[in-house]
Amino acid sequence: MSLRTFLKLIEIQTKVASLFPFLVGLLFVIYRFETIKPLNTIIFFSSMLIFDLTTTAINNYMDYKKATTDEYRKRENIIGQANISEFLVRNTIITMLLTATALGIWLVFRTDLLVLFLGIICFIIGVFYTYGPVPISRMPLGEVFSGITMGFGILFLVVYVNAYDQGIANLFIDGQTLTFEADLALLGEIVWVSLPCIFTIANIMLANNICDLEDDIKNLRFTLPYYIGKKSAIVLYNVLYMATFVSILTAVLFDVLPTIMLISLLIIIPVSKHILIFNKKQIKSETFHLAIKNLVLVNGSIIAMMVVSFIV
């Protein structure tokens, strides 16, 4: 398999969705807890990225296997387009999965059991997102799981592996007793900061499902827009962006984020223009990319203002 084919298989252009919560979480842990553990950060980033590549490869493989027509396989799926051997794809997936798992275990030894517990949950969600008789991606739950797992899960973990000794949360095993302790105020702050990531990532999945609604029905993928209707899905798409900006504003008002973060709200202007264009036309090749642009604008502005706050 050539490098170019591999990059298409794992859809390298979509990895920006996991990069932003990582960067927001990294900057927040420096801002809020004034600490960073470089090796833990590198291990986590490597494991996170490789696992993200793995789930995308699994998604493409399962879409190829479950496609109801050869035309769809060759037109929409990279495996069919590039005529990649299924054996090679499976071995690539297994290799990446084992690598990500090994890195995750190493990180557990450097931190604590809570990282193991959360890692297992993310592992299960990631694999069964597209694998199994009824994968999550073929249900009206894709937006919820992708938004929370990536938007909150990645951000929380990068905060935690750098500040696991700061009293955020702990998981203990004492004989036959499993005890979980958490500082609800700190957890609340982390959730608050993660909301823009959660909403913008969920909207990427939602925009994708809205654009693919007709093809998804033909291939037995009954996603959220199928159940609530296309018009309601578009309304939800708009509401999630509104909630994104409200979460930024309230985080500043309640002193969770620095005041300078209010400048990031200026991106409401270009984001609103993109929303209006998508509302008028939901064609994958023409307007889906606007959801990705909005994610970059929203989270990129948050990252930029966090960096500026350090300088100021």
UniProtKB/TrEMBL annotation:
Q: Which UniProt keywords apply?
A: Membrane, Menaquinone biosynthesis, Transferase, Transmembrane, Transmembrane helix
Is this entry keyworded DNA repair?
no
Chief place of localization = membrane
Q: Which GO terms describe its molecular function?
A: 1,4-dihydroxy-2-naphthoate polyprenyltransferase activity
Query: Which domain of life does the protein's organism represent?
Result: Bacteria
Pfam families annotated for this entry?
Answer: UbiA
Q: In which pathway does it act?
A: Quinol/quinone metabolism; menaquinone biosynthesis
| Location within or outside the cell | Membrane
Q: How does it sit in the membrane?
A: Multi-pass membrane protein
Instruction: Specify whether Cytoplasm is a keyword of the entry.
Output: no
Q: What is its EC number?
A: 2.5.1.74
Query: Any idea what this protein is called?
Result: 1,4-dihydroxy-2-naphthoate polyprenyltransferase
**Taxonomic lineage:** Bacteria, Bacillati, Bacillota, Bacilli, Bacillales
Gene it is expressed from: menA
